[in-house]
Amino acid sequence: MSAQQENLHEHHTPDPNWGYPHGSALTSQIKRRYRGGQIWYVLLMGSLIIAILTLMALLYTIINDAFGLLAIEYQNDPNRIVLEKQEEMLLADVNTFDSENDNMLAARIADDPNAIGFFGYAYYQENQENLKLLSIEGVAPNASTVADGSYPLSRPLYLYSDADVLQSNQAANVFLNYYLTHVNNEIDDVGYFPLGAEAMSHSQQVWITANELALAPGQWAAINPDGVGGAVTIAGSSTVFPLTARMTEGIQRAGFGGNIVNERVGSTAGYRAFCVDEAADIAVGSRQMNQNEFAACREIGKRPLAFPVGIDALAVVVNPANEFLTNVTTDELRQIFTTAETWSDVNPEWPHETIQKQIPGANSGTLDFFMETTFPLTMAELPKPFLVAILEENISAGLGRRIESEQRFFDDTLLFFTKEQWAEACNSESPYAGCTFPARDKENILLLIEENVTMPNVVAVWQLMDSLLKRAAIEQEVLLKYPTAKIQWYSWINWDFVTHPQSSVPELAGVRTAILGSLWVVLITAIISFPVGVGAAIYLEEYATDNRLNRILQTNISNLAGVPSIIYGMLGLALFVRALEGITSGTMFGVVSVGTTANGRTVLAAGLTLALLILPIIIISAQESLRAVPNSMRQAGMALGATKWQTIWAHVLPNALPGILTGTILSISRALGETAPLVVVGASTFITTDPTGPFSKFTTLPIQIYQWTSRPQPEFQNLAAAAIVVLLVLLLTLNATAIYLRNRFARRTA
User: How confident is the model at residue 356 (pLDDT cuts 50, 70, 90)?
Assistant: First the structure.
């Protein structure tokens, strides 16, 4: 034999004693197996890393969509509604006098020792010999307290115009330029306080931008008004009126030849003249435009530009004969102008004399500012009767009757029905639901106001990371595109989201109905599939003989575990929804009257369908768990005289139960996340009625998520992300509970 043949024989011939390779052959085999193990290790670790990264990416996407900034526009600004309601109450007081003429208010206070009122600081200075100025919270209005912001009733004064107006009306443009150039030189003498250099520069920059001028930062283009003609109409605040009158005199002295109309009608009326009637080129106000006024301007193609021109300190004054009042707190002011009829109602040490309140009129921005500052209430802080009054004033009678027929507003008062109409309806064969339901609570009224009065509309949403990293850019975008919108941080996952039903309005939509539907469906699925699945596994493992029929059954069960879920949906539609409609709809049991629109698309049909879906998995997992129990345990039980069933019940099942429950938990988790079979069976994609039993219409969280992801509005994508988080929490909660019970049972049987 040659040396090469001997070498081959040595490497490939097994050891005659053991039959395994040895020497270099053994070393080579070990290296090959080590390399193979390393490759499999890398592949498995790579798969694990990919799975972890995929899960992290999924969670990042969900969380990124579930939180962030949004811009909301209201069809009717809720703060404005509250403000108008408070003003209505104040103006209706028999001891309240109102006027848009602040000089008239000053004269009435000067003539009545029990009078109190408020107006712009310039009118106080004009009439200060006949008035007594009060401090607020110990702070008197003056240049220093206004500048440092310590005086609580200081406010900016505004001019508003539009870029198109300025470009088309040279007179208005020149007048505004003159105003911004010279206002700080005149404002002290008028009785107000000048803007700081930075604030004035900002106003001038707005004018420069509107005129599309390419000036260096900080540069200003003052226009000589000499010889300029045309007409300018200015309307608005009586507070700003004397300042505007002074600027009118100045520009006319400088040679302006145009006609200037300066109307003192109040801030609200001035904004209406600018944004609705288009009767003014420039609106002046002692408050900012509110959202509704901005929206009115946008409807006619105007984008109002705000030009702050000065600062006013609202003066609260009394008659000089008033010796007991020199300082008031904000709380005392609130009482004086609302609940108090006499001075002693506010402070027992004050006189028992009727308070005479002198205030600006309903169109006054001064009144709006005073109410916003002194009565900073939100809609949610108003009492229920006021909320109902707001709803009643802003909805039609037909809608009001429908809402009240569903559930009354008060137990003892009707708003949209007479007592006779209500009694007749409640005694009819089909009485209103409101005949038996308790009255609506405050939270329900607030929800109705949101849906039918304020009607919030999300105009833009931003994801979490953009909201954190690009806040300044977002604010600038909203300012340019949605000037009336309010930016707010929003968590789409909140308690209202969990407790509210579905709604076509994203801000009001919730998943309560879907959560209850999911729980009902899973409960029925578990009640049916667990005992049937475990019973089938016990039969196949413990009783069935090895014959052809049982082998066919076992094969089919294994195959059914891999059938697509939508096939089970088609089976459920044909069997439970149509063939067994009388049972699944509840008609057979008298739950639903014959002749109604009841059908088999109910919680029961969905539960039965999902039970069939997970039944093969439960059977197979239960069989494996039963197989894992040692035969010696069965033999020992029967050797002691126990029957086969007693042995299975007392020994085999308890030892197999942890494994059975593991398979059941996985199966129920799958059922909770199923969508396709429920779509086929007929789950509702939009329903606001909670399921109350197995014969109810329903939806589930996966169906709700599917419906929201199919909507084009971006805010519904955020709702879907929030619903996914809720589904995960629900799934983990149910699984954790089941695992806890399984482990506890396993310890007891150990």
Answer: very high
Q: Provide the H-helix boundaries in 359-484.
A: 365-374, 384-394, 397-406, 419-426, 442-449, 464-469, 471-481
Structure tokens of 647?
């042995």
**Both 672 and 606 in a single domain?**
yes
Summarize the confidence of residues 585-605 as an average pLDDT. Answer: 72
Contacts of 452 (CB under 8 A, 6+ apart): 391, 394, 395, 399
Entry pTM: 0.65
Q: Where are the beta strands (DSSP E) in 83-186?
A: 96-99, 115-119, 132-133, 135-136, 154-161
**404 and 551, same domain (yes or no):** no
Angle separating helix axes 291-299 and 267-275, nearest 10 degrees: 20
How far is C-alpha 124 from the geometric centre of its chain's CA atoms? Answer: 45
Instruction: Give the mean pLDDT of the chain.
Output: 88
pLDDT, tens digit, 9 for 90 and up, residues 319-352: 999 999 999 999 999 899 988 999 999 999 999 9
Three-state SS annotation for 356-374: EEEEECCCCHHHHHHHHHH
- Kind plus residue range of the DSSP H or E element containing 267: helix 267-275
Nearest to 230 by CA among 173, 188, 170, 279: 170
Q: 33 burial class (0-12, 13-18, 19+ CB within 10 angstroms)? A: exposed
**Final residue of a domain: which of 425, 450, 475?**
450
Helix residue spans in 539-595 (DSSP H):
548-560, 565-572, 581-584
Q: Which two tokens stand for residue 304?
A: 């109002």
Mark out the alpha helices in 1-126 (DSSP H runs): 3-12, 24-66, 78-91, 102-111, 121-126
Q: Into how many domains does the chain fold?
A: 5
**In the prediction, which pLDDT does 3 show?**
53
Could you give the CA distance from residue 74 to residue 395 in angstroms, rounded to a whole number?
16
pLDDT of residue 41: 93
Same domain, 162 and 136: no
